[in-house]
Structure formats: C-alpha cells, structure tokens
Amino acid sequence: MKKIFVFLMSVMLLNACNTIEGMGKDVKKAGSAVEEAARR
C-alpha cells in the first residue's frame, strides 16, 4: 500500500512541474474568491 502511495505522489509531483503556471493561476483564483467572501 505504501509503495502505491509513493508512486502516485511521484507521478503527481512530476505532473506538477509541467503545470506550475496553471497551478499558480488556480491558487490566485482561490485567493480572490476568499477575499471576495471576506468583503461580504
């Protein structure tokens, strides 16, 4: 079970290297949503 978890985490990290820019945009959108909710 632990080997499967390590494998999946490795694959996710490798994919993240290619999508850091996209991830940054998603984090920015999430932050904007939180700010907007806080203003209400």
TrEMBL record:
Family listed: Belongs to the EcnA/EcnB lipoprotein family.
Superkingdom per UniProt: Bacteria
Record's keyword annotation contains Cell membrane: yes
Pfam families noted in UniProt: Entericidin (PF08085)
Protein name in the entry: Entericidin, EcnA/B family
Keyword entries, A-Z: Cell membrane, Lipoprotein, Membrane, Palmitate, Signal
GO cellular component, one term: membrane
Record-level GO BP terms: response to toxic substance
